[in-house]
Amino acid sequence: MPTYVCQVPAGFLTVPQRSAIAEAISHSHSEATGAPPFFVQVVIEEMGTGVRFLGGELVANHIWIYGHIRAGRTKEQKTKLMLQIMRDVAKVTSLPEESIWVYLNNLYPTDMVEYGHVLPEPGAEQKWFDSLPESLKTYLVGLGTERNSFVL
């Protein structure tokens, strides 16, 4: 499950802005990778004042986004994803794009356990899904997963 942690200045975002950022990141990840948006986790962490410095100078209007995604995505997919997240978050917050920094960290599928199972290699999602217990398949289908086209 991809996880994006957004570090923002304390009190900088409204609840609707937080929701809009979470929705935009989920959509961008899904569009770039084919993964269902309901698998995308977005965590927004508010940082206290005076905790971020660039070149020794305090910065108050930057947002850092760290995405932990499954390794195996192409350079093109990752570039598209990072740029779209940057643009969407800049639009939601009215910050300039250069104030939105996005880092992607690739985790090997063998380094991730979700729903009690080690994740599959890219391209092996259907086989992984087919091997799950029926109760878990039913749960995932209830979240919007289609048995015929399951992708992470």
Description of the structure:
With 152 residues, this protein is α/β, with parallel strands linked by helices. It has two domains: 3-107, Macrophage Migration Inhibitory Factor (2-Layer Sandwich); 113-152, no CATH class. The chain contains four helices and eight strands. The strands form three sheets. A four-stranded mixed β-sheet has the order 2-1-5-6, covered by helices on one side. A two-stranded antiparallel sheet has the order 3-4. Helix 1 (15-33) runs antiparallel to helix 2 (75-93). The protein is elongated, with a radius of gyration of 17 Å. The chain starts with a strand and ends in a 10-residue tail after the last helix. The model has no long low-confidence stretch (mean pLDDT 87).
Mean pLDDT: 87
Percent in helix: 25-40%
CATH superfamily of the largest domain: Macrophage Migration Inhibitory Factor
Give the beta-strand count: 8
| Beta-strand percent range | 25-35%
Morphology call:
elongated
CATH architecture annotation of the largest domain:
2-Layer Sandwich
Q: Number of folding domains?
A: 2
- Give the termini separation: 7 Å
Distinct helical segment count: 4
- Say what the CATH topology of the largest domain is: Macrophage Migration Inhibitory Factor
